[in-house]
Design goal:
- The complex is a heterodimer of chains A (380) and B (124).
- Chain A has 380 residues and is α+β, with helices and mostly antiparallel strands.
- Chain A has 13 helices and twelve strands.
- Chain A has two domains: 203 residues, no CATH class; 145 residues, Barwin-like endoglucanases (Beta Barrel).
- In chain A, strands 1, 2, 4, 5, 6, 7, 8, 9, 11 and 12 form a ten-stranded mixed beta sheet that branches.
- In chain A, helix 2 crosses helix 10 and helix 8 runs parallel beside helix 12.
- The longest helix of chain A is centred in the middle third of the chain and has 39 residues.
- In chain B, 34% of the residues lie in helices and 0% in strands.
- Chain B has four helices and no strands.
- Chain B has a domain of 49 residues.
- Classes of the chains: A alpha+beta (380), B mainly alpha (124).
- Chains A and B meet through helix 1, helix 2, strand 4, strand 5 and helix 5 of A and helix 1, helix 2 and helix 3 of B.
Chain lengths: 380, 124
């Protein structure tokens, strides 16, 4: 075992010296190789982390959501309709949600104005998300004035600013009293934007959705599993887009690397010939080449992956975030919890390390099985 | 030669040959440190999101506030297919963020099994 380790150590020693002889060229290859791994790994790490975050948060969203439509457009639900839904078998609880959008011309952003049934602020007061607070420079106790669609100015006192930690779901929220909400949007009493239903038996969710569909044919039923699937597919799509763009760079690099790895230069052929002539056997030459491929590709993968990790989880993915997160005026600021999808990283590792390593072997093997004299003379 | 007796040879400093394998050891050490950082990060508990979870549960929130430009992008999971084109029938979707949100499933895949909401094609 010791002899084996010693042999490998000497082979690595020789390989590194050989690589150092063409230092600039190999370093260039290494840097580009690491950069390609960096982009691919950053995308994978970021997408996995944000998908996990979305899933963790949105598992708390309503099991079933119902929106009423009229002539294909959204319409308000009345309290009577909500009561009717509550009487459906299998439905545990029905809660009307009052919410709407408000475009604030001052900062050029849309807010989500919401008036919960329970736990709402007092009249004349609002609780705001940290995105709104940042855009308008608000703190608790400040006043927020909004011009309603009817032109009237509504002045509210900020009761509470939600912490940055909740930014991912609440950046643009403005919570208010239901009466304030109705007055602001000039809506009649007791109308609801949509209804959140909870179902007694989770296995019955689809049945309940079907029953609602029969009772209110012109309505949309949105299930929690569909919400979760939407986000899965949304980030899949974005990851795919970025990877598709990166794939062009990766393909260009693959051609370069393949060219470098699979074609031996005259120098390298002569080197193999000399090694054979001084007593190396084919196995030694192949092991040396294997080390060369593994050191470059494995090293580049490790460096690329680690820089991607630092980039995504310690530098807030500054380079790729605009594409993967989306953008907006009230952009939520959030830090992602580090997590890794072992399968995709392993796949990336295998796809980057294996082909390069194998590509270095074949030409070396061809040179190594040829007569050293012929190889050195360059007659093959 | 001052300092050495006549006829003696100046001592030769021992040669420390640079061994690339030692440099490799150094590189591996650095990578091991990196691996430690990754492990330490992974062992950290999930960042606190109690307030976000509470708000999601209490208000029945359905979407991440990632894009707030248009209502069909702010609440992607509640958006119907036509919302992007509702200004007039052939209105082109014009918000930049729309470019990175996936087109509806039926345009990407073969029709899947019918669900209770299949009549309202959605962005999932």
């Amino acid at each position: 075992m010791r002899a084996w380790i010693n042999r490998q150590s000497l082979l690595v020693d020789y390989t590194l010296s050989a690589l150092a002889r063409h230092g600039g060229r190999n370093l260039g290859l290494f840097v580009v190789y690491s950069a390609v791994v960096f982009v691919l790994a950053s995308t994978m790490l970021f997408t996995h982390a944000i998908r996990r975050e979305a899933k963790a948060l949105l598992t708390h969203s309503p099991e079933v959501l119902l929106q009423k439509l009229k002539a294909g457009r959204h319409a308000y639900l009345t309290r009577g309709e909500l009561d009717g839904l509550g009487r459906l078998r299998g439905v545990n609880r029905v809660e009307g949600r009052r919410w709407g959008y408000f475009y604030d011309a001052v900062v050029g952003a849309n807010y989500t104005l919401m008036a919960p049934e329970a736990g709402h602020p007092d009249r004349g007061r609002v609780d705001v998300g940290d995105g709104v607070a940042r855009a308008r420079g608000l703190a608790a106790g400040d006043t927020l004035s909004l011009r309603s669609a009817a032109g009237g100015l509504h002045v509210f006192t900020v009761g509470r600013v939600f912490s940055a930690e909740s930014s991912l779901v609440a950046a643009d929220l403005v919570l208010m009293h239901p009466s304030d909400w109705e007055a602001f949007f000039q809506l009649p009493d007791d109308v609801f934007t949509d209804a959140a239903l909870s179902v007694v038996n989770p296995l019955e969710v689809r049945n309940v959705a079907r029953k609602i569909g029969e009772r209110l044919p012109e309505s949309r039923v949105i299930l929690r599993e569909e919400v979760l699937r939407t986000y899965d597919s949304l980030f899949d799509w974005r990851e795919g887009l970025l990877l598709a763009m990166a794939s062009m760079a990766a393909a260009a690099f693959a051609i370069l690397a393949w060219n470098k790895a699979s074609g031996l230069s005259a120098d390298e052929r002569r080197e193999i010939g000399i090694l054979k002539a001084i007593g190396w056997d084919t196995r030694d030459v192949l092991t040396m080449k294997l080390w060369e491929g593994a050191l470059i590709s494995g090293g580049a993968f490790a460096v690329g992956f680690l820089s991607a990790w630092v980039h995504v989880f310690h530098l807030e993915a500054a380079l790729i975030a605009p594409v993967l997160k989306g953008w907006s005026v009230l952009y939520p600021r959030f830090v992602l919890t580090p997590s890794v999808d072992a399968v995709s990283i392993l796949t990336l590792g295998l796809l980057t390390v294996l082909p390069y390593t194998l590509a270095t072997l074949v030409p070396a093997w061809r040179a190594a099985i040829t007569d050293p004299d012929q190889v050195m003379r360059g007659t093959v | 030669m001052p300092g050495f007796p006549a006829g003696s040879v100046a001592p030769i400093a021992p040669v420390h040959r640079f061994r690339p394998v030692a440099a490799l050891g150094l590189a591996l050490g650095t990578l091991a440190l990196g691996a430690l950082l990754v492990t330490a990060d992974l062992l950290k508990p999930r960042l606190p999101r109690e307030e976000a979870e509470h708000l999601t549960r209490a208000l029945g929130l359905t979407d991440l506030a990632l894009v707030t430009e248009a209502r069909y992008l702010r609440h992607v999971s509640l958006a119907d297919l036509h919302s992007a084109f509702q200004d007039h029938p052939v209105a082109v979707e014009h918000f930049p963020a729309g470019a990175v949100i996936a087109p509806p499933a039926h345009l990407r895949h073969a029709p899947s099994f019918p669900s209770s909401t299949a009549s309202h094609a959605r962005l999932d």
